[in-house]
Amino acid sequence: MQYVTGYAKLKGHRVFQARWVRKAATGALWCLAVVVALVLINVVGIALAGNIERWQQWVNAHTNHFLAWRLILYANIAAGWAWMRRRVLARESGEDAHWRLSRAELACVVVVALIEATQAMKGEA
């Protein structure tokens, strides 16, 4: 009988499957791209405004515009989610798919509520 130890034992494990690693790397790259884009937007904004204080004043003065932009973004995400939900439920009609989608929807609503509550508290301070 041959015993498998070390890397050879882990080689067949899910973590080492190329598809999973590729998906994780793609997700990490998207997150990094978003962070880099946000940093660049702020750096360019600070450079155009002249200093950080004036940039912050400009951002605060346009709070309602940013709220409108976020609401439009949320509406588009909801429309895309409804389209995707119909497709997923048509493909996987089981109770498990419905439960997974419901959990994801709840998580999304909680995240959006937390983001907007944070923005509202910033406005009151």
Descriptors for this entry?
125 residues; 2 domains; mainly alpha
Q: How is this structure best described in words?
A:
The protein is mainly α. It folds into two domains: 1-61, no CATH class; 63-125. 86% of the residues lie in helices and 0% in strands. It has helices spanning 6-11, 18-49, 52-61, 63-91, 95-124. Helix 2 (18-49) crosses helix 3. It is extended and about 55 Å long. The N and C termini lie far apart (70 Å).
Radius of gyration: 22 Å
Spell out the helices and strands N to C. HHHHH
Integer tally of domains: 2
- Measured between the Cα atoms of the first and last residue, the distance is 70 Å
Tell me the helix content. Answer: over 70%
In this structure, how is the largest beta sheet organized? none
Number of helices: 5
Strand content: under 5%
Average per-residue pLDDT, rounded, comes to 85
The global form is extended
Low-confidence regions: none
Tell me briefly what this model is:
This protein is mainly alpha-helical. 86% of the residues lie in helices and 0% in strands.
Q: Helix and strand layout, with pairings?
A:
Elements: H1 6-11, H2 18-49, H3 52-61, H4 63-91, H5 95-124
Helix pairs in contact: 2-3
